[in-house]
Amino acid sequence: MIAIYDGDEHQKFMERLDSRIKSHDKDIERMCNYHYQGFIDSIRELLQVRSQAKSLNSEVVQLDEELQASAASVVVKGEELVQARRVESNIAAAIENLSLCLPVLTTYAKLQKQMKEKRYYPALKTLEQLEHLYLPRVANYRFSHQMKENIPKLRENIKEASMSDLKDFLENIRKFSPKIGEVAMRHVKDLSAQDLIDFSPVYRCLHIYSVLGSRETFETYYRKQRKKQARLVLQPPTNMHETIAGYRAYIHGIVGFFVVEDHVLNTGNGLVNRTYLDEVWNMALSKIVNALRTHSAYCTDATLMLKIKNLIMLFNTTLRNYGYSVNQLFDLLHEIREHYNEVLMQRWVQVFREILDEESYLPIQVSSQAEYDNVLETFPFHDQALEQLSFPKRFPFSPLVPKIYQQVKEFIYSCLKFSEDLNLSQGEVDDMIRKSTNLLLSRSFSGCLSYLFRKPSLALLQVIQIIIDTGYLEEATVYLEEFVSNITGAPKEGHMSGRSQGQSCMFRVARDDAERQICDKLKRKLDEFLELENYDWLLVEPRGHASSFITDLIAFLQSIFLSFTNLPPEVAQEACKSACEHIAKSVLNFMLSDDVKQISMGALQQINLDTIQCERMSTPKHKQLLDLFMTWDWPTYFHDYGQDNSKYQQVYPNTAIILLDKLREADKKTVFSVLKKSERDKKKLLETVLKQLRQLAQTAQQ
After folding, report:
1. 325-362+398-490+503-531 belongs to which CATH class?
2. CA distances from 511 to 25, 262, 460 (A)
3. What are phi and psi of 273, to 5 degrees?
4. Domain definitions of the chain by residue range
5. What GO CC terms are in its UniProt record (predicted)?
6. What pLDDT, on a 0 to 100 scale, did the predictor assign at position 62?
């Protein structure tokens, strides 16, 4: 029944119902006609049916109304359902579109996070993924166009950010290079440049620029900046030569720079190559050599120079292990070695001066065998006669000799220290040490002696002892030669002998100074005696014995000449000759002095007596003058004058004139001399002699 009201069947139903009714009516009428009673009954039944139909119709209408009311809510619900389904469809479409956009937004957020964390290379990869994978999926959206337009700017930001990191890296590497160099020179295991500094900014920047097609630009920039840093590293501190710390800072910085570059060479995927690195090293090497040469030349501390040498050696070894050529640095070490030897000599000059200042210059005296052996342990000396003597014994040399000998050995050891590990042959080391030792003795020590000899406080006997000491030092050079051969391992053949070349030239300058000082000091001492001269120039008769000051002077000379025993013969002879000449000259000056106006014959005879005493040591030059006046042998003088074999060759006319004038003045004081014919004849002869002497003097001047 309810189905009738579904759709459009209601009208048809009603029409069919009416048709059916009419059909039934006809059937009823026919039946009624046939069955009237039955018809009547049927009518009655029909009327009942009609009422029932009406009732049914009412019910149907009521049901229809109710159905209409129910259908209206259903329609509303259907419309709501359609709207819901439309919303659901929109939601599904939105979800689908959001699913396409979310990877874009997620990737963009990831990009921002990577850039914030300075992970630029992953950020660049993310940007590529965003550009080529996700953005094409949302190409219809406006925000995708904005993102796409912003991509070049993002790439440029990544380049700039990675370059900023690289600049920070370059600044840090400049600061950390000395530490890297220090670690490298110490050869610390398990520590490399990468352990001390993060190289990732370099790799990131290189990758980024490579991906962006700007690798060549990056390589050019990196190399240019590193070359600038190399020039800064190669500038030494102004006071580098003062302490080893300055040299360490300089060397460590250089090593650090090239260790870093070597690391980049091996890990930088061609960022630097061997050609570039060799170019930078060759540029740096000349600057390094010049800087070390200049600053080491200012150094005057031998200990510091040894530290410098060891530092340079470690520098060479480290860089050579990294493949750099260091031959020029080894050549520099040879130059520094020569300066080191000069510095050593200056240092030993101070040592020698301290020894010389503290020395008393008295022969060593020992009172026991232990003391005797102790001296022999410090200086090679053998004297059979001295060994056989009983104690106390006295060595011919002073403590100066073993002290200097030991210091020379110390100098040799110090020279050898610098030559260690320089790849020198035994012969080269041996020659260097011998030359340096020879210079030490012949120049440095001799110079100290020459300086010492000029001190007024140095006594004559001390000068004599020093000359004796130098003789023993010269003889000991043969032992020094042997000592050098032993410590260097070089053959002993072909080297100078201590005696042949040593004594003849090693202390020649000092000996010449000493000889002059002996002569000068001896003259000054003689002057002290000569100042006591008290001649009576008008003495009538000589005293019959030498003057007291001459006697004292001769006694002094005899004692001095005894101390010449151990002197070289030529030195002793020269000193004796000089002393006698000085005495002779002084006595002659006494007679010729302007202060002495008159001299009697008795005074001349006294001077002759004094001269005879002096002849025990040497014949004074003025003896010929005195002999001429004592014998009055003027004919011989005039006859032989100018001849090589003249008896009075050393008597000059002017000297004789002065002395004759003084004799003549003294004769004037004798009142009775004019009464004697002999005196008158002598006076006449004197005038004649004076006249002839003046003629000779005039001729000599012409």
Report:
1. mainly alpha
2. 183, 61, 14
3. -125, 175
4. 162-324, 325-362+398-490+503-531, 558-700
5. exocyst; membrane
6. 83
Amino acid at 8: D
Residue-wise pLDDT tens digits, 547-560: 888 888 888 878 87
DSSP 565: G
Q: Kindly report the CA angle at 436 between 430 and 438, in degrees rounded to 5? A: 100
DSSP 8-state code for residue 365 = E
Query: Which residue, 285, 295, 296, 290, is CA-closest to 326?
Result: 285
What is the b/e burial string over 652-667, where b = at least 16 CB atoms within 10 angstroms of the residue's CB?
ebebbbbbbebbeebb
501 residue type, one letter: Q
**pLDDT tens-place string over residues 503-540:** 445 677 777 777 777 788 888 888 888 888 888 888 88
Cβ(320)–Cβ(191) under 8 Å? no
Mean pLDDT of the chain: 82
First-last CA distance in the chain: 189
pTM (2 decimals)? 0.65
Q: Report the C-alpha gap between 681 and 690 in whole angstroms.
A: 14
List pLDDT tens digits, range 119-172: 777 887 887 787 778 778 777 777 777 777 777 887 788 788 888 888 888 888
Give the Å distances, CA to CA, from 552 to 113, 548, 556.
113, 6, 6
In tens, the pLDDT along 259-317 reads: 898 888 888 888 889 999 999 999 999 999 999 999 888 888 888 999 999 999 999 98
Tokens of 463: 């000068």
**Do the Cβ atoms of 175 and 166 come closer than 8 Å?**
no
Single out the residue of 483, 481, 512, 507 nearest to residue 496, CA to CA: 481
Q: What angle do CA 636, 639, 642 make, to 5 degrees?
A: 110
Spatial distance between the Cα atoms of 610 and 605, rounded to a whole number of angstroms? 9
The long-range contacts involving 561-570, CB below 8 angstroms and separated by at least 24 positions, are 561/617, 563/461, 563/464, 564/464, 566/396, 566/468, 566/471, 567/464, 567/467, 567/468, 567/471, 568/467, 568/471, 568/511
